[in-house]
Design a protein that fits this description.
Layout lengths: L2 E2 L10 E6 L20 H14 L3 E6 L39 E5 L16 H7 L4 E7 L1 H14 L3 E10 L7 H11 L3 E3 L3
Parallel strand pairs: 1-7, 2-3, 2-5, 3-4, 5-6, 6-7
Bound molecules: pyrazine-2-carboxylic acid (VGL) and zinc ion.
C-alpha cells in the first residue's frame, strides 16, 4: 500500500484531525489493552501540534459506556468491561497532548447499542459540516474496530480520509485483522500517510 509523507500532505483549509479512542483502557495495563497501543501517542502528538499550528479543528472521540453496557461479557457482549463513562479507564491517555480547543465526541453511551464508529449516534457529522471540513486525518485505536468503522463511515459520507499509518494499532483478535483493516480502508479510498 503506497504511503505518503506529511510533506506530501500539507494541511488544507478544509481539513480536520480525528483522534479515535486514545483512552487508558485501550493502552497497556488497561482492561481492553490494544497491543502496543501507547505507540500511537507520540505520532498523534506530532499531528496535534501541526493541526493546532494550522488553526484547523481537532476532534477526539471516546468510547463512553454505561457500567452495564451490552458489549461487556457479563451483559452478553464480547469484550471485557472497558471505558465506563467517568472512570479513569475512560480518560484520554495522559500523554496525549489534546489542546483545550479539541472537540470531544462521546459514543456508545447507551446500554442497548454498541457503536464502533465516531459517527454512529453522535453529532460528529454535523460538527464537521459546521466547521467546513471535507478531509479528515485519522488515527488512534483500534485499527480493526473504531478506526476502521469511523473511516468507512467518513468515506461513505463523502469525506476524504488520510489514515495516519504510524498512529494506529490493532486489537488483532484474529491475527492479521489490523493489516486487513488497513487494506480495507485503502480499498475504500483512504490514503495512507506515514510520519517520516
Ligand atoms: C473499541 C472494542 C470495543 C475501539 C471500542 O475503540 O476500537 N474496540 N470498544
Ligand atoms: Zn467499547
Amino acid at each position: 500500500m503506497p504511503t505518503l509523507t506529511p510533506s506530501d500532505s500539507p494541511i488544507r483549509a478544509d481539513d480536520a484531525l480525528l483522534v479515535v479512542d486514545v483512552q487508558n483502557d485501550f493502552l497497556p495495563g488497561g482492561s481492553l489493552a490494544v497491543p502496543d497501543g501507547d505507540a500511537v501517542v507520540a505520532p498523534l502528538n506530532a499531528w496535534l501540534a501541526r493541526f493546532a499550528a494550522a488553526g484547523r479543528p481537532i476532534f477526539a472521540t471516546r468510547d463512553w459506556h454505561p457500567a452495564d453496557h451490552c458489549s461487556f461479557r457479563e451483559f452478553g457482549g464480547i469484550w471485557p468491561a472497558h471505558c465506563v463513562a467517568g472512570t479513569p479507564g475512560a480518560a484520554f491517555a495522559p500523554g496525549l497532548a489534546l489542546p483545550a480547543s479539541a472537540q470531544v465526541v462521546s459514543k456508545a453511551t447507551r446500554r442497548e447499542a454498541d457503536a464502533y464508529s465516531g459517527f454512529s449516534g453522535t453529532d460528529l457529522e454535523e460538527r464537521l459540516r459546521r466547521a467546513g471540513v471535507r478531509r479528515l486525518f485519522a488515527g488512534g485505536l483500534a485499527t480493526d474496530y473504531c478506526v476502521l468503522n469511523s473511516v468507512r463511515d467518513a468515506l461513505s459520507l463523502g469525506y476524504e480520509v488520510m489514515l495516519l499509518r504510524d498512529a494506529v494499532r490493532a486489537v488483532d483478535v484474529h491475527p492479521g485483522d489490523g493489516e486487513r483493516a488497513l487494506a480495507a480502508m485503502a480499498e475504500a479510498g483512504a490514503r495512507l500517510v506515514g510520519n517520516a
